[in-house]
Amino acid sequence: MRNVSKTRFDPRSKLAVILFASFTMMVSISWIDEFVFVTFLLLLFLVSGFWKKGLMFYGVFVLLTLADSFLFRQGNHLLIVLLDFFSVGYRRLLPTIMAAAFAISGTKNSEWMAALQKMHVPNVLLVPLAVLFRFFPTLVQDFKSIRQAMRFRGISLSAGSILLHPLQSAEYFLIPLLMSAEKTATELSATALVRGLASETPHTTVHELKLRWWDGLVFLALGGFIVKRMWLG
User: Fold this and answer.
1) Positive or negative torsion for Cα 179, 182, 185, 189
2) Could you tell me if 104 and 137 are in contact, meaning their C-beta atoms sit under 8 angstroms apart?
3) Tens-place pLDDT, residues 170-184
4) Percentage helix, strand, coil, to 5, in the chain?
5) CA–CA separation, 150 and 157 (whole Å)
6) DSSP 97
7) CA distance linking residue 74 with residue 55, whole number of Å
8) Chain CA centroid to CA 130, Å
């Protein structure tokens, strides 16, 4: 069944969500703050009509939290510590992945470019950002291709295999994905330059973007998170 978007958020509010998610990954935050932000992202998925994606990510967050809680009580064995490290690492990375998935859901690349031009982003930044917004859908396709190739070779890629065999998962999945991502980024950069995005000529767009009250609520919620982080800790 195809997802139907109920509320269309402006790309600028989605960009703010991505930036804030990246900020939470770089600083130390409590589990309560993680939980609140992931729940906030789930609500964004739900009101946008992409509830299946939202529930899937939320379920992964709950599983990683339970895994961390279970492994933490199992002592200081090297394998236990390593598994706990990976569970916490994947959980900290999850909000950024959720924000990126929310941003690309229901938003065309041309809408992203129109939003950036409306924000008067200089061309020197417009080109790498254009590459970034085209990068995530391509990365998803690479993920599916690598997973299919692993299945052909009888290698399972599930949540259980990642937790039980993190090093093998990194060797057979993460490393090929990173190499493919590097190649994709280079090709997209060349494509952006060829299409003239680096020129000084202003570009027209057919998209009329306008911030609405629900976009204002997103900015207000993110501002509340920042205020809590700065003044309340």
Assistant:
1) negative
2) yes
3) 666 677 777 777 777
4) 75, 0, 25
5) 8
6) H
7) 29
8) 16
DSSP state of 108: -
* Residue stretches of the chain with pLDDT short of 70: 1-5, 75, 123-124, 127-133, 136, 153-173, 185, 188-208, 229-233
**Do residues 128 and 186 lie in contact, with contact meaning Cβ atoms separated by under 8 Å?**
no
179: its two tokens: 């190499």
Q: What is the pLDDT of residues 80-131, one digit of tens each?
A: 778 777 888 888 889 988 998 898 887 777 777 777 777 777 766 776 666 6
Q: Are 21 and 94 in contact (CB under 8 A)?
A: no
Q: Which residues contact 156 (CB under 8 A, 6 or more apart)?
A: 150
Which residues, other chains included, contact 121 with Cβ-Cβ below 8 Å and sequence gap of 6+? 129
- Are 62 and 90 within 8 A, CB to CB? no
Question: Position of tokens 């501002």?
Answer: 223
What distance in Å separates the CA atoms of residue 130 and residue 147, rounded to the nearest whole number?
Answer: 27
First to last CA, the chain: 43
Cα separations in angstroms, 29 against 54, 59, 61: 22, 20, 15
For tokens 């509010």, what's the residue?
13
Q: How far is residue 77's CA from residue 82's CA, in Å, rounded to a whole number?
A: 9
- Locus of tokens 């390593």: 82
Q: Are 16 and 219 in contact (CB under 8 A)?
A: yes
